[in-house]
Structures are given as C-alpha cells and as structure tokens.
Amino acid sequence: MARDHAPSRRRARIAAAALAALTAGASALTALPASATGLPRGHDVSSHQKDVDWPGARAKGARFVYVKATESTTYRNPYFGRQYGGARSAGLVRGAYHFAVPNESSGATQAAYFVRNGGGWRADGWTLPPALDIEYDPYDEKQECYGLSRVRMVAWIKAFSDEVQRETRRLPVIYTTTHWWNTCTGGSSAFAADHALWIARHSTQDTGSLPSGWSSWTFWQYDTSGLLPGDQNLFNGSPARLKRFARGS
Q: Alpha helices, DSSP H only, in 117-211?
C-alpha cells in the first residue's frame, strides 16, 4: 500500500509473500494487468504523494482512488482533505483507507478513529466503501502478525468491521496479501462472503492465488509504481459496476 513511512524491508517481504502464495490452495486471479485493458484503472495514495495532479491522473486513465486517512489511533494523513477532495473534483470515484496496527488498540477503537477522520461513506456513487489495510507489521520484522494469535486477529478484524458498518452502514473492503491472510488468520473464511477483497499481488508473471475463502477479487493492486501516482490498481468490473459498487448496490 502507498504508505507514509515504509521500511525498505517491506518490499522484500511482499516479494517473498508473492512467491509463497504460488503454492497456496486458494482460487487463482483470473487476469493479468496486460490483458485487462477493459477494466477501470485506479491507484492508492498517502501523504507520500503529497499534492497529486488529479486532472493529470484522470487524463492518464485513473477512474478511482483510495486515499490513506489514518493509521492506528495516532496518525492522520495531513494531505487527506486536499487529496480526497481533489480526486472528487477531477471526477474520480474515491474512498478512504485505514492502516491497521492491531497490537496498539482494539479493532473497534481504530475503526471509530478512522470514521471520525475521513473514513465515512455516502451512497452518492462517488464514495467507495471504507477500506481496511491489514498486512505485515512494518515496525517489527519478527512479529508480522503483530504478536496476535490467529483467533485474536480474526476477532480484531471482526471488531473493526462491525464498528465501521455500525457507523457507516457499509462493510469495509479488506486489503491484504494471500500469504499474510493465510498466515495470520489461519486462512479464515469468516469475511469472504460479504467483504470485498482488495488483493495485493505485485507479480505480472503469474496469476497467483487469493486468500482462503475468497473466490474473486474486487480490487487488485498489481504494482507499487507506474503511470499513476502511488500504487497501481484495477477494479474487477465495468465502469458502471464501479459506480454501482460505490453506491452500495
């Protein structure tokens, strides 16, 4: 995910996770970016991108974007307002995401902080559901699951999801990698039936696999750099379906 302060080891860990995911038993991704020219393209940004040229991003093909709003309960993206508003003014469907730090506070506490600081939702066709970025611990390489057991991690995610739904009337999109999900939740299928998946997979040489439980992806982050500012993404559907998804249809 486009982040504000990412240790250099993170890219190596993502690459290792991608290789590990090749042997996972989940359903395969069904298209490569090179063959997905008809799918809406988008990106995700954080304060690292600062002042984004939103009309320029749209001219290059962007149709949606996720903007980092918060992390834990101690950080709010100082560029969030201008990024979120600028994306909308340029005609992009946009949403907010929260970077989870599960060992610092409860899921419900972080969800409430997120919603108060940009993670809301409206059924206007322009606002994507709030998104939970749940992945490797960037602050302790020995604790990729934040020191939580699989049972506690699943409970943390559920508490976050329940609070977001209570406050916004939408379930959050879940951003993760196959390796992290299967390692840190034990391959939980508790969320696959009703939570949209935003899969992070940065290899263009193979289609890989999805976390256990999901049979399809809604968003695919396929590269950390490219034509658009921040990370490169696809939406798994038509432009009209993207708008329906934003509305909650």
A: 150-168, 178-184
Which positions are catalytic? 44, 133, 135
pTM for the whole structure: 0.88
The CA radius of gyration of the chain, in Å to the nearest whole number, is 16
In a domain, 3, yes or no: no
Parent domain of 72: 9-18+35-247
- 32 conformational bin, left if phi > 0, alpha if psi -120 to 50, beta if neither: beta
Give the model confidence (pLDDT) of 93-119 as tens digits. Answer: 999 999 999 999 999 999 999 999 999
Asked, for residue 2, whether it belongs to a domain, the answer is no
Q: Cα dihedral sign for 223, 110, 210, 145?
A: positive
Number of compact structural domains in the chain? 1
Residue 102 lies in a domain: yes
Contact (CB, 8 A) for 85 and 101: no
